[in-house]
Amino acid sequence: MLARCMDVRTRRIATAVVGCALALATLPAVLGGSGQAGASGSPTVATAAGTASSASQLAEKVLASAPIPPGARPWTAAPPAALTHPMLSAGISGLIDVDKLYAVGEPAGLSDTDPLDSWVLAHRPAGAMIESTGSTSGPEGDATGFALSLPPAGPNDALAQLLYATTATTGGDFVLRIDAQVVWVPDRAGGEAIPPPGGAELTGFATIWGPFGSSGPVSLQLGEVDSARLADAVNALPLAAQVFCMEDDVVFTITFRPLPFTSGAIYLVAEGTCGGMVDVSVGSTQLPVLSDQGCALRNLVAGLLPARAAGTLGAIEYC
Q1: Which helix (H) or strand (E) holds 50?
Q2: Is 143 left (phi over 0), alpha (psi -120 to 50) or beta?
Q3: What pLDDT is stored for residue 107 in this prediction?
Q4: What pLDDT, in 10s, does the model give residues 76-106?
């Protein structure tokens, strides 16, 4: 019904698949958001219980938005072996999956060779985009499917997607499995903001090239004004869901030093090529990963670096 094991990725984000390896093309919501902290560094605190409840509610909402083909009936028996598990799954922490199964025939009025898939795609939720397609085969049977990404419904929705997978029955109809997969990230906890720095060192790179990593560092010593602008931009970033990438080169680093330079904690910020994730550490302590999916920090950095940091500037152009 759909192309076999087609890889349409543009970011190397790991995706678990039964029977073949795929990756999601883009995850527009994947690091897209949690509540933002202001420059004062006093974000809202969210409890773990509140996060779990909100994530479950989001998953059920996404599943309820899934278009169901005409004539579909709830499948009440055990799932076919080929549909025991989601056929696709994003490689990202905090993933919640809820699913339903249906018995379906071919929707009337469609003569396409893939009528079920065509009907679903024609009735997809507003803003939904195809992220990947694939198929599996093996002793458990054959199945085909695809993933639809949904635009975020709120600032804490880091991922929302619908997964469709079908397998044929002996009677000539199909069993359809629909999964809603979501990631909900909390607001940033208090006390994680970078204090007003006395200065910062910004480092870009002349070359950023896959297996060879980042090379040719280009470093600038910034004054208080530009240092404060960068610190404010980092403090305004939301938390990120942790994406598992096969490759992640460093795009730039920023070292923030307080005044006087001889005392106080040093904050190190590094953004990689994987999904706009920003690592922040203070001394030997690693803080929660932040999201620059909106490219606010990257764009600010691009305005400060000279042309010889061509690798960094080229990577930022893809934001």
Answers
A1: helix 48-64
A2: beta
A3: 52
A4: 888 999 999 887 776 676 788 999 999 987 6
In sequence order, what are the beta bridge partners of 256? 200, 267
d(CA 146, CA 132): 6
> Which 3 state secondary structure label does DSSP give 34?
coil
What pLDDT shows up at residue 284?
86
Beta pairing partners, 215: 207
Give the CA radius of gyration of the chain.
23
pTM of the model: 0.59
In whole angstroms, what is the distance from residue 251 CA to residue 241 CA? 19
Q: What tokens were used for 172?
A: 């000539």
Say if CB 4 and CB 134 are below 8 A apart. Answer: yes
CA–CA separation, 156 and 183 (whole Å) = 9
Whose tokens are 């929705």? That residue is 157
- Residue 138 per-residue DSSP state: S
CA distance 231 to 196: 7
Q: What is the 3-state secondary structure (H, E, C) of 301-319?
A: HHCCCCCCCHHHHHHHCCC
Running DSSP on this structure, what letter comes out for residue 19? S
Residues 62 and 186: beta-carbon distance below 8 Å: no
Q: Is there a contact between 107 and 115 (Cβ–Cβ < 8 Å)?
A: yes
3-state secondary structure (DSSP) of residue 163: strand
Whether 35 contacts 154, CB under 8 Å: no
Assess contact for 283 and 266: CB atoms under 8 A: yes
Top mean-pLDDT range of 10-24, 54-68, 100-114: 54-68
CA distance 187 to 159: 15
Among candidate residues 183, 185, 3, 210, the one with its CA nearest the CA of residue 90: 183
Residue 313 has pLDDT above 90, yes or no: yes
Could you identify the residue written with the tokens 């898939």?
A: 117
Q: Which residues contact 90 (CB under 8 A, 6 or more apart)?
A: 13, 15, 24, 27, 30, 159, 161, 181, 183
